[in-house]
Amino acid sequence: MKHKAKAAAARKKHHRAYGINFILWVSFLAFAAVIILLTWLFQTMLLRVFFGAEMTDDLTDIGREAYDRVGFLMHIPGGEDEINKYIVQTMNENSLVTLYLLDTSGGILYPTEDVDPDGYGFVAEKPDVAVFRRAVSFLNDAIAKDESAARGVAAVVSNENYVYIARYPAGAYAVDMNTTGDIYLYVNYSTQIAEAALGSMRVQLVAIAVIVIFLALVLSALLSLWLTKPIKRITRAAKRMAAGDFSVNFKGEYSYAEMDALAETLDYAKEEIGKSDELQKEVLANVTHDLKTPLTMIKAYASMIQEISGSDPEKRAKHTQVIIDESDRLTSLVNDILNISKIRSGMDTLKLRRINLSDFIRTVLERFEYLVETQGYTIACDIEDGFYTEGDVEKLEQVVYNLVGNAVNYTGEDKKIAVGLHRAAEKGLLRFTVTDTGKGIPEEERATIWDRYYRSAETHKRPIKGTGLGLSIVKTVLLKHDFKFGVESEVGKGSTFYVLFPEK
Fold it and tell me: Where are the beta strands (DSSP E) in 277-428?
């Protein structure tokens, strides 16, 4: 048992939802980390590619210019000194470039260590022979594919060695070049400054990353607080409403439209839930009253039969009739509750068919003839013949019966009721009306008279017929049929309930 409890607690902990503050905080940090990562990739990969392409282009321009110039100087008298001067001058003008004329073994032919008359001086440093040989191999491969490549190609031997290599074949020069074999023009472009710049950028990026992450932490915290403040306010109000406090107000000055819309929706929901809560209390009170009264009478008259009228046939019959009447009232109440529950839940589907509405209404009115005969009620009928509609006979019977029963309960002292059926002003509709001469319904109460167990504050009397669910059943059935209905009333002069049936 303890193991199961621990497992359940672990699952609950595992599935715990994170707050929006934490989610926003993590999201901002993740966004900042992605930006830093992309910047790092740009620096270490793309930027190096850009540098490499730029250096290769510069190196090619320098190498081709040097190849043409040296090739020209190789064919003029005294060209050796001019070659030496040109190479030293080129390296002095381009501090990132070293330029050599090398023999096949990588030995330096030019520049020499002599200082020329114009002041150019250079102490030659021997090139890396391994790098030179890789460059020569690269050049030979290029020449094998295209002989014109002997004029020179740029070779990226390594990250630190961008080389331009070209070849002057043996015998292609007229002056003494201190060798009889092939001569190679070797131009090396230094990447030290570029690497230093990249290294400096790496250090700067680390500093920027620290600053960005710190700012992301601060901004995400401030933004999440700003965004969640109205949510927390609404949450607190919702908790109060859930505890039964319907005086809460969700509306406020919010910074974004979605929260305004949510607050408006929650205020509407609060009002509707408040109405439902009041209705629930009223339903409980009325059901308690409606059930308690007949049960009390049943118990009282059963006791009277047992103790007083058991041996008196006339009294016993009278008392048992009361028990029967109250039992019928209880049965009617339970049936009405079941009917309205079934209709509203969708369990009771409509069985539609064509109905002679004129004859149908007259048939229902026959059930009230005993009130006319025994209690002095007057039911005036003005029903035109030959009107047909389509609907569920059983449920529409409840509508007509309940509307007439409601008029019976609330008509005036003259006990007059008028029932009519005529064509409506709207084309294709039939207007059925039930009019009483009661006290009428105040305008502010007309929207609520259709609620379950509604009683007008002016006339809270026990119905002669019905259970207090009549108008609620009428509303539920007519909404199910999609029929229009309503009430017209004037305080002190009575009310007229109407239904618009489609003519079929």
Answer: 352-356, 378-383, 388-392, 416-423
Tell me which of 171-175, 350-354, 444-448, 477-481 is least confident. Answer: 171-175
What confidence tens digit (pLDDT) does each residue in 88-102 have? 888 888 877 888 988
Quick one: 182 exposed, middle or buried, by C-beta within 10 A (0-12, 13-18, 19+)?
Answer: middle
Q: Tell me how far apart the alpha carbons of residues 109 and 173 are, in angstroms, rounded to a whole number.
A: 14
Cβ 162 vs Cβ 191: under 8 Å: yes
Q: How far apart are CA 375 and CA 411, in angstroms?
A: 13
Q: Can the peptide bond before residue 111 be classed as cis, meaning omega within 30 degrees of 0?
A: yes
Q: What is the pTM of this model?
A: 0.42
Secondary-structure breakdown of the chain: helix, strand, coil percentages, each rounded to the nearest 5: 60, 15, 25
Q: What is the DSSP letter of 308?
A: I
Calculate ∠ Cα 417-291-448, nearest 5°: 50
- Sign of CA pseudo-dihedral 366, 367, 370, 375: negative
Strand order in the sheet with 484-490: 378-383, 416-423, 429-436, 494-502, 484-490
How far is residue 440's CA from residue 456's CA, in Å, rounded to a whole number?
10
Q: Exposed, middle or buried, 399 (CB in 10 Å: 0-12/13-18/19+)?
A: buried
Q: List, for residues 419-464, the tens digit of each pLDDT value.
A: 999 999 999 999 999 999 999 888 888 887 887 555 444 444 444 4
Rounded CA separation 68/166 (Å) = 10
If phi > 0 it is left, if psi is from -120 to 50 it is alpha, else beta; for residue 376 that is left
Q: Is the per-residue pLDDT at 304 higher than 90?
A: no
* pLDDT single digits (tens) 150-161: 788 887 766 567
User: Is there a contact between 266 and 274 (Cβ–Cβ < 8 Å)?
Assistant: no
Task: For residue 132, count CB atoms less than 10 angstroms from its CB and return exposed for 0-12, middle for 13-18, buried for 19 or more.
Answer: buried
Kind of pairing between the strands at 378-383 and 416-423: parallel
CA–CA separation, 471 vs 479, rounded Å? 12
